[in-house]
Amino acid sequence: MMSPIAIVVLAVSMSADAFAAAIGRGAQHRPSVPQALRQGLVFGIIEALTPLIGFAIGIVAAGLVEAIDHWIAFGLLSIVGGKMLYEGLTRDPSEDAEEEAPSRRGLFTLIATAVGTSIDAGAVGIGLAFLGANIWIIAAAIGVTTFGLATLGLLIGKFAGTKLGRAAEIIGGAALVLLGAKILLEHLGAIGSIGF
What we know:
By secondary structure, this protein is mostly helical. It has helices spanning about 5-30, 35-60, 70-90, 95-100, 105-130, 135-160, 165-185. The longest helix has 30 residues, at about 35-60.
């Protein structure tokens, strides 16, 4: 069972990609508050749905891999976190501007961006199935956090540019790697439960 602190860390980490993308969109499109709220809601809903889908896939496979479930959770969280770290550290700021070209303002592009930033949450959902976590609480926490951070990212993007979004992605990636390591070490008995 995941502690409230672990759920918060996971929710914020899963929201980092959406926050980074929202800052880029905000820097380019300068949305009004109602537009930012609507776009943030799209990010939040999609980000909440993907771990549910991943969890369902994980439940189907859980019985087959019960003996190594903690390794799978560790691997998925580490891969997702490592990818976020790599992208946050190596992405060229000029690429952010290209990705958010003014011609890409439609609903389809918004949904595609939201899905693209939430794929990682699906992989995490698979890992959570192996842990028997309460996916409803976790998915709701991820969705609400993503809504809030994406909306905030859209509104501050025009002032902060993309640097803040990259920092959030790096911090979120590191948090996921640490969370995966904690899960693995607890299951191996190397550490006791440390409360997060």
